Amino acid sequence: MRWLLPFAIIMLAGGCSRPTTLQEIRSEGVLHIITRTAPSIYFEGRDGITGYDYELAKRFAEKLGVELRVRVAENNTEILSVLDRNFAHIGLTGLSNRPGLAEKYHALPTGIEAESVVVYHRGTDRPETAEDLAGTTVHLVADSNHEHRLLELREKHPDLNWQVHATLDAAGVLARVESGEFTTAIVSSNELDLNHVYFPQVKESFSLGEPEELAWLFPAEQDDSLTTAARDFLNQLRDDGTLAQLSERFYGHLDRLNYVGARTFAHHANNRLPKYEALFRSYAEEYGIDWRLLAAIGYQESHWRPNAVSPTGVRGLMMLTRNTAGQIGINNRLDAEESIHGGAKYFTFVHRQIPDRIPEPDRTWFALASYNVGFGHLEDARRLTEDAGRNPDRWMDVKEFLPLLAQKEWYTKTRYGYARGHEPVIYVQNIRRYYDVLAWMTEPEEERPAPKEPWFVDLDGAETSDGSASSGSEDGMRAMLPRELGMIPPTL
User: Fold this and answer.
1) Are 336 and 317 in contact (CB under 8 A)?
2) Of 86, 178, 248, 250, which is most buried, counting CB atoms within 10 Å of its CB?
3) Which domains does the chain have, with CATH numbers?
4) pLDDT at residue 471 above 50?
5) Active site residue 447
6) Are 294 and 343 spatial neighbours (Cβ–Cβ below 8 Å)?
């Protein structure tokens, strides 16, 4: 979504504020939300618009029987400006009820707690306490939950200095810590959890203060009728388990990924794959695909589980969306044969979208990325690659630019906007490794090259044929699990 002028300016030009009571909102028939793009709040998911706060707001509007209208701001500064003028009913900011907000807005906790976390570059000394931050510059985004904590600390540590970045989001700050441009920064713990896997050079140090629940903000000009209705609604979701389900969908996978490794893949290859190997072989032959590549895609998508279902409706062994299944003529996504047939057919479709001039194997790597993140987002990354003077037809170049689609300063320059661009990079690298292992496992024993001992250790941190480090199976599951939970941008 693009705006030629900031949303607040557009609303000022219109010269109208919003209804201030629940009754007036119902009479108008519209609930107006102002938000920003962030994986913790609102983003374009694989099955459409999603995000923890957005999903709550959508359900709340349905409960009220009104239309939900969402406007996307550049940052929290703009959101707060819109709320100050009562040009929206609710602001989704990812802020807690920090000092100063209570005087200007009604704040309603939404069930997610976060704390201000100090992060630093792996190659520098770890700051253990606030005193260790003196003498360096701490970086943070504007209008965050962190600056008031730093102001409190400065009373004891007058040498404490920080820089606020109005044009960066949390991913942009973490990217600069990753590169070494920023030595130290502060981010919200929930945003760190969602992004940390993509920035291996970023290390977590300590927290400033206690966790606080993130809140929706309502303009002070409103009476408390809408806030009360929203509070009752969230309490209902808390009581019936919906709030916990949404929290699990967006955050629950983040603390149980490390156990997954190469041994899991080997176990599933020996116990699950034989049930579906004939189907992979048959449909791969029909569509001219190496069956081991098709099987590797299936493993990345579902761990070869035909009944896999995400909360957003992505389902089956090949985890097809409803739209994709309809497009390629698949009726029952939970049927293993139909799902594998659909995966083969759809991969062939996206492979043909990749320009013929791109040689193999890069054309296949691009097709896998498109299968994951969507052709439009892939093209955006290729354009960024070309603009930087790199080769847009070479995967090793484009994979460096795909992650930029998760940073506001870059995705605002593209046609299709925000995408979790790290995901297709991990996705492609994992499938390549799964394919390598399947190819080794299915070669006649006398033709096999001698594997490392044990053979499955090669899955972790191995070098790929182009010299790039592949993602280990742990990182692979970090890519796969969010997709199962509906957190990856849409295929279509």
Assistant:
1) yes
2) 250
3) 7-111+214-252 (3.40.190.10), 113-212 (3.40.190.10), 262-484 (1.10.530.10)
4) no
5) no
6) yes
